[in-house]
Amino acid sequence: MKLPYAESYKIKMIERIHRSTKEERLNWIKEAKYNLFNLKSEHVFVDLLTDSGTGSMSDKQWSEMMIGDESYAGASSYYKLKNAIKEILGFDYFLPTHQGRAAENVLFSVLVKEGNVIPGNSHFDTTKGHIEFRKAKSVDCTIDEAFDTTINHPFKGNVNLEKLENVLKEHKDNVPFITMTITNNNAGGQPVSLKNLREVRALADKYNKIVVFDSARFAENAYFIKTREEEFKDMSIKEIVTEIFKNADAMTMSSKKDAIVNMGGFIGMRSKKLFQEASVFNIMFEGFITYGGMSGRDMNALAQGLYEGTEFDVLESRIEQVAFLGKKLVEYGIPVQQPFGGHAIFVDAKRFLPNLPKEEYIAQTLAIELYIEGGVRGVEIGTLLADRDPETRINRYPKLELLRLAIPRRTYTNNHMEYVAAALGNVYARRNEIKHGLKIVSEAPIMRHFTVEMDKI
Ligand code: F0G
User: For ligand 1, atom 9, which residue shows the shortest CA distance?
Assistant: First the structure.
């Protein structure tokens, strides 16, 4: 008999979490204006808001924290991280930043000009935010299959090459770069195949464009390439990662995901010229080029995290736990994005609550119901997140209304997953009683979902 997977770690330190009553949660969520970001974390039992910066570091990472070099310039921790980035990702130049969006801010300050068009697979919200803030536009060229949660396509993160080539033809010199998000978070934590990455590279070469990878979950993407793309099944994760990044000229990284640290990011670059130009903005926004927004100890833990995060066993434990939750939800009959994502399960809120109109924030309504039911915090990936069109100020209605249940790395047990599934199962059983959604009371002009205030209809 083939043995099942089991976690490739054991627990050395724990943190207490607390249950609450439904009555308490009804009050807390009302006080929070039906915005899950406004809740105190102590009012959450299982927190699946994000897998970003919420993972558990290993004993080796904590050991590295103790020997960080806090010199302002030229710290050994900087060189440790520089070596890890060169060894694992292959970039000669890098700049540390305090997190992923800071890397975007610095790099886009060099690359993005007003009126530019930046095509790619679904841009993450901060990526899109930094593009739109500069009065440029992002064009999502993800394959159509990604927007149908019932289709079981192994690489729903892929771009449609025809869509991409059309943008390149139409906007020519106005396209400063192509961006690829690996894995494609907004499409459901879905991977991009190595074949697709290579084809994008070939198109970029044809049109003389550079390619930037948004690499937050590159290691999970590599795991899916190994397990789903026949040609690469015998390669190690580290070999696949090398193959992936051969296709990029630069990368932005939120280290809070696959590098399993609580804070940190960086930019990887091949071009010395780009590095020099970006350095000016890094110094202005983040800090000197050998620390950016990071302390020495954090750079040490990040270097160690890059090595650990690209081990097969570490990735298997993680992705199998996500799949465990996915399978439980399917057993309850709950509609979820298929196949299961790398870092999260995405519940199809439109199919869960088919009678709610799109104007009533379907996925947000479901997220609130799940919190009230079991103290479980997920996050809306739907109309709130899609925001208004910057020019017309009209609400954009995305094809999918998703409730994302993102699982922190090495943090919860499968018992917690059973609990989450049972809570959502209860909401599913009473779904016909949910007749009204939510309305917005106040919102910010950009990235409104973080601070929006809502009320029940
Ligand atoms: N790119 C992707 C694909 C992301 O998922 C994120 C963050 C970022 C960039 C920005 O990085 O948070 O370090 O500034 N995603 C988190 C999430 C917030 O919950 O998915 P950051």
Answer: 100
Sole residue written with tokens 């209860």:
426
- Look up residue 373 and give its DSSP letter: H
| Residue of 104, 105, 126, 409 best suited for mutating to test ligand 1, as the one with most atoms within 8 Å of CB | 126
Report the domain count for the chain. Answer: 2
449 is catalytic: yes
In a domain, 10, yes or no: no
At 248-279, the pLDDT tens digits run 999 999 999 999 999 999 999 999 999 999 99
Catalytic residue among 214, 249, 348, 387: 214
Rounded distance, CA 391 to CA 204, Å?
29
Domain that holds residue 166: 59-309
- pLDDT tens by residue, 406-434: 999 999 999 999 999 999 999 999 999 99
- pTM exceeds cut of 0.90: yes
Here the tokens at position 141 are 């060229």
CATH code, domain carrying 299: 3.40.640.10
DSSP β-ladder status, 177-181 and 210-214: parallel
Residues with CB under 6 A from ligand 1: 50, 52, 99-101, 124, 126-127, 181, 185, 214, 216, 254, 256, 265
